Amino acid sequence: MTDRLERYRGKTILVTGGTGFIGSAVVAALDAAEARILVVRGRDSGSSEHVDGQARVEVLEGDVRSTSFWDAAVSEADCIFHFAAQTSSRHANRHPAEDLKANLGPVARFVDACQRLERRPDIVFAGTVTQVGFTTKYPLDETVRDSPITVYDINKLAAEQYLRYYAREVGGRSVTLRLPNVYGPGPVSRHGDRGILNLMIRKALAGESLIVYGSGEYMRDFVHVSDIANAFVTAGASWGTVSGHHYVLGSGDGHTVLEMVHLVRDLVAAATGTRVEIQHIELPAELPRIDYRSFVADSRRFQADTGWSPRLTLSDGIAQTIQHSIDEART
């Protein structure tokens, strides 16, 4: 990691959504770089915790939906990590115009500002593995044809295409990392359809029953947030191989939702002595079809192009997250 951080020396790095779950982890991963980091938080986002390191960190308020924000960002930044987004697919399906403004508009404004101001900062974008659409076969890599079935994924895919255009036609450098189910210590998601593994850990620690829809047979690829943060930092230091591409991230090790819930229950019991119940309920009628998918990532292309690989197994990552929550509750 030290060699990769060296490539950020002397640069101004801007992180939108920098006080959010993944954004704050990336800021922490960059903290040993001798760089200036501009952490952008929305007006309704949480506070930012920062441990002093080599980097000079400044926390700013900004609205990524505005032209003036991107004019300032493009004028000042050498590298941008773009995490600010509306992240609920259910909300997007109910409010497509709002999701367009939140998830596609900012990227279009970024490209527009770059062309008007004649600057070309690097940009690393957070996509999602659900952009490919409904999947039952796995593992999946970058060769699978995209066929999104939610408004959220349509806008994410369109934003990715804007950034591919930026890299291949405008003269900039961009890369999209499509994310699987990410978990670990960090801010709590504001949406009930995000952060399911973290939610299960919080419920188990509170002594509450863990609810599983149906049989819990759907396969997921869970990756610890520290491994994802490392992937973003690695991508931003690997432009010779990654620019103009998208990558599917994951552990390559699939677990059903039920297996994940059993792991949470057993590891919380080992840490606290309290063993909660697991309850199965019928699948809600309003559950989006994308939630019925099964997915496991094949990330060998990203590993070959950058040298990145996930470090934490699901069991170790859950245990670490549980312990972090226990320690935090004691302070």
Helix and strand succession? HEHEEHEHHEHEEHEEEHHEEHEHH
Low-confidence stretches are 46-51
Biggest sheet character: 7 strands, parallel
What share of residues are in beta strands?
A: 15-25%
Global shape: globular
- Please count the beta strands (DSSP E, at least 2 residues each): 13
Widest sheet: strand order?
A: 3-2-1-4-5-6-11
Specify the number of helices.
12
User: Helical proportion?
Assistant: 40-55%
Cα-based radius of gyration, to the nearest Å = 19 Å
Protein structure class: alpha/beta
TL;DR of this structure?
With 331 residues, the protein is of the alpha/beta class.
Protein architecture, described:
It contains 12 helices and 13 strands. It has 331 residues and is of the alpha/beta class. Helix 2 crosses helix 8, helix 5 (96-117) runs parallel beside helix 6 (151-170) and helix 10 crosses helix 12 (314-330). It is 42% helix and 17% strand.
Question: What are the SSEs and their pairings?
Answer:
Layout: H1 2-6, E1 12-16, H2 21-30, E2 36-41, E3 56-61, H3 67-76, E4 79-82, H4 89-94, H5 96-117, E5 122-128, H6 151-170, E6 174-179, E7 181-183, H7 196-205, E8 210-213, E9 219-220, E10 222-224, H8 225-235, H9 239-242, E11 245-248, E12 255-256, H10 257-272, E13 278-281, H11 300-306, H12 314-330
What are the salient characteristics of this protein?
two-stranded parallel ribbon, single chain, seven-stranded parallel beta sheet, 12 helices, alpha/beta, 331 residues, 13 strands
